[in-house]
């Protein structure tokens, strides 16, 4: 029997009465399902005793809504609308319950616009930092087809899967980032505190220092400006790159091509891009978004400019009457399996179902690749840190051999 966890929840029933309590379940999804089977709409759900597992908040990055917050918002919104609540009442409850300040403000403005007669999709489109274009397009299609609750359900499913995928990628990259940061700190500590001790000892004993040891001594003397300069360069480069990534499509295309060519991580990034492409396109087509509009939205929401660049070519080809699968084959980023599945979907009239199968396949591939990457990179990073620290120790002890030889010769 799988182990269960305790979850704290706040919920609302069909009469509008709010309740709170705890529920035992295997995971968050199971806890949410248990509440829904009781006829309750979960407004807040959190695992008891999370401690250090809570999300880190980084100053200066609070403008855009986190994917996890958006996934929770979408699930709550979908559950409320499917239970028969009006849009205005649902938005009012969501405004009250949402904890993310930026999202809370956006929901309040959306509610005001909807109350004034503006459509939900149009109201959400005004807040592109909180509501992605994919979400707005699906809501608009749901409004047109009279199935907004179904569209919101699929948005929630998509965001939850995307959040899970991102979590796996972050887990795979966290360990090497921590080890790399610790290595830099260790190098700085050795240069600041250990090298001066050895330098004084070498002066007392006399003799000339080897070139590599002299380099460490010089670096130790200049740490007062090398350290701050290094931090400024790293911070400045990071800021410039982020700005260029936001403003330059050509720079994003160059960087995404570079990421796909990386020896270890390239395969992982490619699988993640295929998962998002298939999932997003399948969702849009499934709720009735026209093919041309769906391709345009997917090009902007996959998070990979190589696919975005390819979608422009695919749009032109489809506009001329060519099959989507034929246009995709002209771009190397799309594996043969993807184009074959899409071709079968075009022939059978079930392209959205085929895309869902492709997305599920690549979700599993990303999961497997992330686990393999984590397992293989841990010993490599340990070896790198050991080589750096060991190399510095050898450099500090090299003069000992020269001094010992001088003593013997005398």
If you had to describe this structure to a student in words, what would you say it looks like?
There is one protein chain. Helix 2 runs antiparallel to helix 7 (148-205), helix 7 packs antiparallel against helix 11 (265-286) and helix 11 (265-286) packs antiparallel against helix 12. This protein is 74% helix and 6% strand. By secondary structure, the chain is mainly alpha-helical. The model is unreliable at 50-63 (pLDDT under 50). The chain has 16 helices and 3 strands. It is elongated and about 95 Å long. Strands 2-1-3 form a 3-stranded antiparallel sheet. The protein starts with a strand and ends with a helix.
What can be said about this structure in brief?
By secondary structure, the chain is mainly alpha-helical. Helices cover 74% and strands 6% of the residues.
Helix-strand layout with pairing:
Elements: E1 5-13, E2 18-25, H1 28-37, E3 40-47, H2 67-82, H3 87-97, H4 101-115, H5 120-125, H6 133-145, H7 148-205, H8 211-221, H9 223-247, H10 249-261, H11 265-286, H12 291-301, H13 305-319, H14 324-328, H15 336-348, H16 351-409
Antiparallel strand pairs: 1-2, 1-3
Helix pairs in contact: 2-3, 2-7, 3-4, 6-7, 7-8, 7-11, 7-16, 10-11, 11-12, 11-16, 12-13, 15-16
